[in-house]
Amino acid sequence: MKNVTERTSNPFGLRPPFDRTGPDERTAVFGYGDANADFHLIGDHPGVHGGRRSGVPFTETESGVAIGEVARAVGFAEGPTDRPTLENLYCSYVHMCCPPEGETPTEEEYAILERFFDAELRAINAHILLPVGERATDHVLREYTTQRGRLDLDMAALHASEIRGRGFLVVPIREPTEWEDTDREALVARLEAILGRDYRQTKGVATRVG
Prior knowledge:
The chain is an alpha/beta fold. It has helices spanning 46-49, 62-73, 107-124, 133-144, 155-158, 183-195; strands spanning 32-33, 39-43, 77-78, 85-86, 89-93, 128-131, 163-164, 169-170. Strands 1-5-2-6-8-7 form a six-stranded mixed beta sheet. Strands 3-4 form a two-stranded antiparallel sheet.
């Protein structure tokens, strides 16, 4: 049984390699949640999925709140919406640094932060990766599965599906602002189905048990 740490926010003490924010603004939104989790929720950056004020991923923005509601529906989250208590779920971003309001990180900035994200993902060592939106899904499929070349990045089609990775099971999540009538229910149903079986994987073999 792994026991990474009991720290909830930034459990590995990461320090952002650059800062594009003003003197009174938050520099970065670090990983947050249960560092011993089996489920790792992965977003894009704070400007999209939230946390610029709270410091907690998947809060404040429309997309972040929608994901938070799903986490509550399946029993991952409880307590305050801006600083929930998470069990069996860890949340982080591909790009943890806060870009200036209204701006998007550059490709170079994404590249600089890639090693930080990768190190944290491997330290958490979750079984199920839950990338949200095109950017996070593309990165996870490219880096942690052998499937990216075989799959179109059609998030409507990939949403709430199961893709076997290199020691991970990947469940892509369509950007919540683009959800249609049944997308929320499909995601909740998929997560409940996974939780209802033995979802553990043998690391490095990419074989799902159960």
